[in-house]
Amino acid sequence: MPIIAIEGPPIADLNVRRKLVSELTSAAARAYALPEEKIIVLIRENTPEQVAVGGKLLADLR
Known about the structure:
Blueprint: E1 3-8, H1 14-32, E2 40-45, E3 52-53, E4 56-57, H2 58-61
Parallel strand pairs: 1-2
Antiparallel strand pairs: 3-4
Keywords: Isomerase, Pyruvate
Pfam families: Tautomerase
Protein name: Phenylpyruvate tautomerase PptA, 4-oxalocrotonate tautomerase family
């Protein structure tokens, strides 16, 4: 089973989240010639307090 893992900022809108996983699932199912039920999508959300760039938290760069 293919696994798609996405990391990024939180997605507040549940409908946007649904559309994201639906479109990723469809694309992977086509690419792998598998049924959509075989595709796993993991969303890992990172708040600005959990991510640093250049040694500084994103929360501090805002």
